[in-house]
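Q: Structure for this?
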Amino acid sequence: MARYDRAITVFSPDGHLFQVEYALEAVRKGNAAVGVRGTDTIVLGVEKKSTVKLQDSRSVRKIVSLDDHIALACAGLKADARVLINRARIECQSHRLTVEDPVTVEYITRYIAGLQQKYTQSGGVRPFGLSTLIVGFDPYTGVPSLYQTDPSGTFSAWKANATGRNSNSMREFLEKNYKETSGQETIKLAIRALLEVVESGGKNIEVAVMTKEGLRQLEEAEIDAIVAEIEAEKAAAEAAKKAPAKET
Amino acid sequence: MECVFGMVGKGFALVVADTSAVNSILVHKSNEDKIMVLDSHKLMGASGEAGDRAQFTEYVQKNVALYQYRNGIPLTTKAAANFMRGELATALRKNPYMVNIVLAGFDKDTGPSLYFIDYIATLHKVDKAAFGYGSYFALSMMDRHYHPNMTVDEAIKLAEQCIEEIRSRLVVAPQNFVIKIVDKDGAREHSWRRTTKD
């Protein structure tokens, strides 16, 4: 096995590209990120590692916009993310320049995934160590979409998905609790999924909401309020479970 | 013959351009919008070779948008003007863009500003500017009647006087003109001055 992870262009005898798998490991160590698609809203949530005291948290934006109608969140190597995001932003404008139309979510996802794939089949380079969650509304049909890409360069559309640390637990939660939602309900579902793996509180979560009007980053106070609502609902559900047992 | 002119007033800047698209003796259309809204608070009136005009202005517009996504804040008018001049200068001795530009913008901290950028990459920050044969008449009119801190009404009246002068004195005067304005509320179309329906 040691001989097959040096240059990534080499397959191992059992068909693995080890560098790509190691890149996926890097993603698994990155912060948790979740995306939930609603009927009129798409929500992205990212875990914020407990802020280092002296750091200006405003300079660390984990959910970025690629264009007016497209936003991206990622898990993994943040420096690699900067490079990919920059290329994607240029492509969004380049597309507008050449065909006079904004990109569709699928197009820009395909572009980013294509870029990630290129780096798994070139000499002397390593794959990008990140998975992305890309959200947006189709500029022509108004249909909301959520896509995920990973270091191998594969991409697919999702109703809800998670990546990064403890993504399996979040995905399990979403599989159990997903239903078609809109507006505030979608935001709550995304935050509930994040709270499964992240310490509770507005300062540990970054949430952004994409609607037809554009991307809106939620303020810490707003997130705190929603978290409080969720905790109250959880407590009420717990109480309801205990109460009937007492009566009988 | 194409003409574009502009002026700065109190808290706003105005750009006026003719709207004719001409090829030798044929007028293709008389409602060609030559003043591009660069971003929420910038207007770019361009005259010159039609292909170069569209190509260059769209290229600048997309790069200005890209800057905003990369950096989270929009370019200042001065920065946009210098970017344009740089692009024109780089292309000048290889494959020049034959485009003359009047850039008007409003920045929150510095207020309205107007920039004169010609096809050989001259850049001047000015209070009034004009391009084309119409500039002979527009500049003279503005030299006589312009004063700093004009109101919107005064500036529009002055623009109308310039348009009237161009119409009566230029042998192949354009038929229609469009006036666009930029102030703290953004860049938008103000009005048209037509002699022909499109």
